[in-house]
Design brief:
Helix content: 10-25%
Distance between the termini: 193 Å
Keywords: Membrane, Transmembrane, Transmembrane helix
Largest sheet: 7 strands, mixed
CATH class of the largest domain: Mainly Beta
Structural class: mainly beta
CATH architecture of the largest domain: Sandwich
Number of helices: 4
Radius of gyration: 62 Å
Number of domains: 4
Number of strands: 36
Oligomer: single chain
């Protein structure tokens, strides 16, 4: 009897299969990737995507096909209940309503013989409705077999402390490289690599990487610290990870700089006088808060270094204005070079120039007596003025003369002084006696004074003639007090001239005297038949001490 019931039951089942429906359920998951020679386990979410409720759903079998729908071997599927129990063909779910989802735990083994590629794994289920109707349910799963166990996902580069991903990196900052790598295998995978900066084919700041990647998701991190003295410029970050199946390469361009730029260097005045100071202004743009050194170098027109100064300041983020004071320097065109440095490293520099003007200077004052009258005299003054500037400069020359009763004479002249030496003449009439004078030169707000004295007096009668025959007398002064003149000097000169003249006349007189002939015995006289003959006497010159009248007049007038 039992055998009969079993046979009837099997017959009913087969009869039901003949009249069963073929249905397809979908999964919420996408592609499942499995490394050849390894396995993959996980959970699938299956959706009852048909309008039918099932009292019982049982697992029957699975199979895999390639892209050409040819069934392949070497792929093994294991299905587990939520309790972890392995399911062989048998009941998998109960009371599965339309639209509901059920989870399916799986483990897929792929043999090394399976070639990498796209495959489809079909899970076949039987669904029993409340009326006893059987449906054949197929759940297709996309399967990818690969021989590369690592999946390199996102790589991010950040600046430590700032966090922001930016193109501009500052010296002293650190680049942080974060890379996400997924290991598909169920065993660790060893990788090695490197990270460095590249410029013009050269590698800088290279660091090596070596790590074992565990199954699942891994975070690989590497850092590069940019030294303060590292040269500014454009660089490429190169990041590589290498393992037995291949190499991962990541690159990113960066611009590295110190972040401190000397935007401008300017001067308070571009033209000053030799006794004035000046101020240099630095306009600095900074991307960081950092102490720096400001320095100034001053050069002459011939590039001779004459002055330097350095000071330390702290820069804030944004625009900074700093200044350095320059002391009075020698006249001429000055070139200045301003520098911003950090330690021994120069960050930036700029240059400018300015002119230092020299005050015109009275180098010498001299005078010449032109004529003397019983109560006054005429004197010509010559003032020598130097202008050491390369261009014209204006000034005012003033003079004052003083006597015992106060100011005698005042005057002034407007001057345009050419580069180099200038001479200024003026003539004045002043009373006889001792006269003081003051000559001043005013230019560019500065005044220079030269003081002196002169004495005008009529010569004594004994020296009148010689004084009148003298053309001029000149006195000069390079200081504030001119040389003194007295009439005694002229008397001494006149007496010396008289003595010299007397000596000349005496010499002349001595040379003009002829020496006397020696007396000779007279020859005996011969008697002439014609009688006595008297030889005429030769005309003798006058004595040496006598001269023609006109010579005497010349001597007297000379005397």
């Amino acid at each position: 009897m039992k055998k009969l019931i079993a046979a009837i039951t099997i017959l009913l089942m087969f009869s039901s299969l003949v009249s069963s429906q073929y249905l397809f359920f979908s999964t919420l998951e996408g592609n499942i990737i499995v490394v050849s020679g390894d396995y993959r386990e996980g959970t699938l979410t299956i959706v009852n995507s048909v309008d039918k409720d099932f009292q019982v759903v049982s697992y029957r079998r699975y199979y895999a096909v390639d892209e050409n729908n040819r069934e392949v071997s070497g792929i093994k599927l294991e299905i587990y209940k939520s309790t972890g129990e392995l399911v062989s063909p048998g009941v998998l779910y109960t009371y599965w309503k339309a639209g509901e989802t059920r989870t399916l735990r799986y483990k897929i083994y792929v043999n090394e013989s399976v070639k990498p590629g796209k495959y489809t794994l079909f899970i076949v289920l039987w669904g029993f409705s409340g009326s006893g109707e059987i449906s054949i349910i197929t759940v297709p799963i996309s399967l990818e077999v690969t021989d590369t166990p690592l999946i390199f996902k996102e790589t991010v580069v950040q600046i430590k402390g700032r966090g922001a991903l930016t193109f501009h990196v500052l010296n002293g900052e650190t680049l942080e490289i974060h890379s996400t790598v997924y290991n598909l295998k169920n065993s660790p995978v060893f990788v090695k690599g490197s990270v460095y900066l590249e410029r013009d084919g050269n590698q800088y700041l290279k660091k090596d990487i070596a790590v074992n990647l565990t199954p699942g998701e891994n975070l690989v991190q590497a850092n590069i610290s940019i030294p303060y003295e590292f040269p500014s410029g454009h660089y490429k970050l190169i990041y590589t990870l290498t393992y037995s199946k291949g190499t991962y390469l990541f690159s990113k361009d960066f611009y590295i700089s110190f972040g401190v730029d000397l935007v401008e260097i300017s001067l308070e005045k571009t033209q000053i006088m030799e006794d004035e100071s000046n101020t240099v202004y630095f306009t600095i743009l900074s991307e960081r808060v950092i102490p720096v050194n400001l320095s100034i170098e001053v050069y002459e027109a011939n590039n001779e270094h004459i002055y330097n100064q350095t000071k330390e300041i702290t820069l804030n983020k944004g625009s900074n204005i700093a200044k350095i004071h320059l002391p009075p320097l020698s006249p001429g065109n000055k070139k200045i070079i301003g520098k911003v440095s950090f330690g021994r490293m120069e960050l930036d520099q700029a240059s400018s120039s300015y002119d230092i003007l020299a005050y015109p200077k009275i180098e010498k004052v001299s005078y010449q007596k032109l004529s003397l009258a019983p109560d006054k005299g005429q004197v010509k003054f010559l003032v020598e003025i130097s202008n050491k500037n390369p261009h014209e400069i204006k000034g005012i020359l003033s003079y004052s003369f003083f006597g015992t009763n106060g100011t005698i004479l005042k005057g002034s002249r407007d001057l345009v002084l050419l580069p180099g030496d200038n001479e200024v003449e003026f003539t004045v009439e002043v009373p006889l006696g001792e006269i003081g004078y003051e000559i001043s030169l005013e230019s560019r707000g500065k005044e220079q004074k030269v003081n002196g004295k002169l004495k005008l007096e009529l010569p004594s009668p004994t020296t009148t003639s010689s004084t009148q025959s003298s053309s001029s007398l000149t006195s000069s002064s390079t200081s504030s007090i001119p040389p003194k003149e007295t009439s005694t000097k002229y008397y001494v000169i006149a007496i010396a001239l008289l003595i010299l003249l007397f000596l000349l006349l005496f010499g002349y007189y001595s040379k003009s005297k002829k020496p006397r002939r020696k007396r000779e015995r007279p020859k005996p006289k011969r008697k002439s038949p014609l009688g006595k003959f008297r030889k005429p006497k030769s005309r003798r010159l006058k004595s040496i001490g006598s001269y023609p009248k006109n010579d005497q007049i010349f001597i007297i007038s000379f005397l």
